[in-house]
Amino acid sequence: MSLDDLLKDRNEAALSDFSRAITIDPDYTWARYQRGQIYREIGRHDEALEDFSRAIELVPDDAAYRAERGETYRVLRRYDEALADFSRAIDLDQEYPWALGSRGQVYRSLRRHEEALADFDRAIELRPSMAWVIAERGELYRTMGRQDQAISDFSRAIEIQSDYIWAIGHRAIAYREQQRYDEAIADLDQAIQIEDKQAWLYAERGEAHRLMGHFDEALDDLSHALEIDPNYAWALGSRGAARRSIGQTDDALADFSRAIELDDGYIWVIMQRGTLYRSQKRYDEALADFSRVIELRPSHANALAERGEIHRLHKRYEEALADFSGAIEANPAYAWAIGSRGQAYRALGRNSEALEDFSRAHDLRPDEAWIIAERGETYRVLRRYEEAIADFSRAIEMNPKDSWALSRRGAAYQSLKIFEEAYIDLTRAVEIDPNNAWAWAQRGALFRQM
User: Fold this and answer.
1) CA–CA separation, 304 and 336 (whole Å)
2) DSSP state, 373?
3) Average model confidence (pLDDT) for the chain?
4) Which parts of 189-303 are beta strand (E)?
5) What gap in Å lies between CA 409 and CA 401, rounded to an integer?
6) Structure pTM?
7) Are 276 and 309 a contacting pair, CB within 8 Å?
8) CA–CA separation, 377 vs 380, rounded Å?
9) Which end of the chain is more exposed for a tag (fewer CB within 10 A), N or C?
10) Rounded CA gap, 354 and 187, in Å?
11) What mean pLDDT is predicted for residues 34-52?
12) Which of 143, 394, 289, 33 is nearest to 153 (CA)?
């Protein structure tokens, strides 16, 4: 074998040599350790585990062998086994920064954030220039919502290793989450200049463009990401959202459905498809999507509220109440769910509870015209006409073309026998929305009453 051949495929050459050494000496633990690392790097995880396990059998107290097997378990997402190996490695060598950092990664994957943070802190204390551990701590801070600390750690890692693509890309994500889109895009531009074949970098840049409303740039980047990796569910979901924003509904649905086909537990995309189905009045399909989200995450407030709204639109008021109440329990400040529950209560004739919900929703979102108008309608049903007119007037001031609120205020005026104002409101309502049957009928009743 020539040197050129060796350089072309060093892993295969190394595997061949390590395997030859192990054939000669099956108990050669260092060779098994090295071969196990190569097996893991090329995705042959079972063989990697076999080598590390044999090395551990031969030398049970070697921290490195334990840690490398732990890393293989971590890559396979066998986190309990990974934790056991990393913890044993750290017991054997309490100043082993690589094992501490890797165990921190496992804790982060298990959402055991404080334990992860303790491991990362200790690893960095032992080796302050270990860029990957600093970046991992940054990612932990980001998932904990501590974006400023995340950005600080990512920046420190990049100072140590200027071409650290993972840290640059994840700093961009933290910037995006702070709505610092220009800085996010600058980071992603830099990362792509270093390595232009990583789909996730294009996808992240596309998402930043999407959130800025730059839909052409978003679609270009997201489509390029999918050329690199056609099975990239996250990029499909983001592209679907961009396509929905520019009215490409069928293409958006195709992207959402393909993303869900690839990852049937992808909650964000299932929600996106469900809300798109609801906007198209494809209620059965929307209901199925929202129910799937609730199955995956029973306390998902948005899915509960969206499903409740479909039940309400179909006059299944008890089911609607149950879902809205579940959403409010999950998020007590969810004004839309509270207001929507108020609508369901009023439909059931439970007007006091409806009034309570509308007032609570109004306190949370005082500038939501529809909530004020719905409370006005409840006052009207309760024959509290002056309060109804006050609410309708406020809602109309906020949204002068609200045919529904105008027609209801007209009806309140009619009940007070203020016929001229009633006529003006009802006429304006049908001018704005000629399909407002309720307003036409109410004006007809007004003519008879006058």
Assistant:
1) 12
2) H
3) 96
4) none
5) 13
6) 0.85
7) no
8) 5
9) N
10) 50
11) 94
12) 143
CA 406 from centroid of its chain's CA atoms: 38
Residue 293 identity (one-letter amino acid): V
- The predicted-structure confidence for 103-133, as pLDDT tens digits, reads as follows 999 999 999 999 999 999 999 999 999 999 9
Is the per-residue pLDDT at 424 higher than 90?
yes
User: Which residue, among 72, 127, 129, has the nearest Cα to 105 in the 3D structure?
Assistant: 72
User: What are the Cα distances from residue 292, in Å, to 268, 295, 357?
Assistant: 11, 5, 28
* Burial track 202-235 (b if 16+ CB lie within 10 A, e otherwise): bbbbbbbbbbbebbebbbebbebbbebeeebbbb
In angstroms, the CA 136 to CA 97 distance is 13
CA 317 to chain CA mean position, Å = 29
| 260 close to 273: Cβ distance less than 8 angstroms | yes
- Could you tell me the CA-to-CA distances from 333 to 56, 318, 330, 338 in Å, in that order? 54, 22, 9, 8
Using alpha carbons, list the distances in angstroms from residue 379 to 199, 354, 376, 382, 388.
56, 10, 5, 5, 5
Closest CA to 273 of 287, 251, 289, 295: 289
Per-residue confidence (pLDDT) for residue 13, from 0 to 100: 86
**Residue in this structure with the two tokens 């062998």, named with its chain if needed:** 65
Let me know: does 269 contact 237? Beta carbons within 8 Å.
Answer: yes
